[in-house]
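Example record

One chain of 201 residues, shown exactly as stored in the release files.
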Amino acid sequence: MTKRTPGRPKVKAEMNITRERISTTAAHLFLTYGYESVSMQQVAEASNVTKASVYYYFKDKATLFTKAVSSMFQRITTRVEELLQSSKGLKERLYEVVLEHLKRPHVDFETLLQEASSSLSEDHISEIRKSEQYIHQALEGIFKQAVENGEIVTTSPLLLAHAFSNVTMIRNKTELITELGGYEKTAQALVELFWIGIGPK
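Predicted structure tokens for this chain:
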């Protein structure tokens, strides 16, 4: 019977924590400054590790970007699910999702992905898109439930999920947010527009 090396699980846990810290830090830097402007050295310094450590966990910048962005989408999905699973009405839950989203302004993701695309493989892009879909799937499930409960009417919960995601993309329009009176009023206006639409009543 082979003896297990003492302390091995602890070492593995510490490695996972370090890897996650690098990934989270990298996602923040990429979303703040763009793909080209962020170097592996910057990620290392911001993560309080050596550049060699970054390369130990992520073989190159494209891999780091892919893993960092994919993990970010997973965290967002988890948070969105937490907000949407409360006992409040759907409209209020949507407001809370939009408000939290608006308070985290960063570069437009599609612009960021386009900037990075020349450095990414098809597998990298596929992994990112798959992680992005989790958010839409979470929203779709909530909208399906709301239809069943008679709270909303829609022919396509998935289309509604994508439409709602697009509504929140206004977060980078800081001048408009200021003109509307801040995050809370902007979030309220967006949800009202999404909820009521523009047709005459």
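Notes: The mean pLDDT is 87.
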